[in-house]
Write a structure and sequence with these properties.
Blueprint lengths: L1 E4 L2 H5 L5 H9 L1 E6 L6 E7 L5 E10 L2 E9 L2 H6 L7
Parallel strand pairs: 1-5
Antiparallel strand pairs: 2-3, 3-4, 4-5
Length: about 90
Amino acid sequence: MGVDVHPRVSQRHPEVSPGDVEVAFDGALRSRARDTDPVQWVGVGLDGRGRLLEFVAIETAPGQWLVYHAMPVTKSVLNEVGLGGTR
């Protein structure tokens, strides 16, 4: 599986490197598809420094992903993927 991280991620969140995003994506704790076209996947994972990151990605080819949004996790994304404790 290949993961590309859009440069905008680090531009908007300089504390989050492409490597951080790749680790969080590869070891996602929970993810789900959104009802969009193309299908977006939203997920939550731990980066190499133990921080909980949220990400949004699309599959650009079989097994190839583009993460175009990633940042420290928010309550709304925790809720969206079922890890927030409230519904």
